[in-house]
Amino acid sequence: MASRHEEIVRRWIDEGFSKGNVALADALVAEGLIAHTALPGQSSGREGLKKAVSTLRAAFPDLAVRIDDLISEGDRVAVRDEIIGTHQGTFNGIAATGRKVSVGRISFYKLKDGQIAETWSQLDMAGLMRQLTSPTA
C-alpha cells in the first residue's frame, strides 16, 4: 500500500507537472519550497516551481511524465521517471523544432506537514539538448 507521502508526490507529478495543473501546488507544495537543483533562472518557493512548470509546458505543451519507480522511506520519496514531449516553443534559447524528445530524471522529495518541502532532481539535460540540436536527431 502506498504511503501518504508517495500519494502526494505521485499526485503532483501526474496532475501538477504532467497535466499542467500548477494550481495544485497550492495544496501539495510548501510555500517556502527549497528546490536544490532548480532550473536556470527558476526563483525559489512554490511560485518559482509553478512558473518553471508553466515555462516547460509552453515549450513542450504535450509534456507527459511516466513514473517508472517510486519508493519512500520516512519523510523522503525517490522517483525515477521519463519526461516526454514535443518541442513546440522556445526552450533554453532554442526555437521550436517540432521534435519529440524523451529524457530520464531521478528525483528525491522531502515532505513536511503533508507538503513537498524540498526537491533534488537530476535530469539528462545533455541528452535533451542533443535531441533538440543534433542534425540527425
Q: What would you say about this model in short?
A:
By secondary structure, the chain is of the alpha+beta class. The chain has 4 helices and 5 strands.
Task: Explain how this protein is built.
With 137 residues, this protein is of the alpha+beta class. The chain has a single domain (4-133), classed as Nuclear Transport Factor 2, Chain: A (Roll). The chain has helices at 4-17, 25-28, 45-59, 125-133; strands at residues 29-35, 64-73, 76-86, 100-112, 115-123. The chain has a five-stranded mixed β-sheet with strand order 1-5-4-3-2. A hairpin with a 2-residue loop joins strand 2 and strand 3. The chain is globular.
Record the SSE blueprint.
Elements: H1 4-17, H2 25-28, E1 29-35, H3 45-59, E2 64-73, E3 76-86, E4 100-112, E5 115-123, H4 125-133
Parallel strand pairs: 1-5
Antiparallel strand pairs: 2-3, 3-4, 4-5
Feature tags:
Nuclear Transport Factor 2, Chain: A; 137 residues; globular
Distance between the termini: 41 Å
Structural class: alpha+beta
User: Quaternary status of these chains?
Assistant: single chain
Helix run count: 4
Order of strands across the biggest sheet?
1-5-4-3-2
Mind telling me the C-alpha Rg?
A: 15 Å
- CATH topology value: Nuclear Transport Factor 2, Chain: A
In what range is the share of β-strand residues? 35-45%
How many strands, what sense, and barrel or not for the largest sheet?
5 strands, mixed
Which stretches of 5+ consecutive residues score pLDDT under 50?
none
SSE string, helices as H and strands as E: HHEHEEEEH
The structural domain count equals 1
**Share of helical residues:** 25-40%
Mean pLDDT: 94
How many runs of DSSP E, i.e. beta strands?
5
> Which outline best applies?
globular
Name of the CATH class: Alpha Beta
CATH architecture: Roll
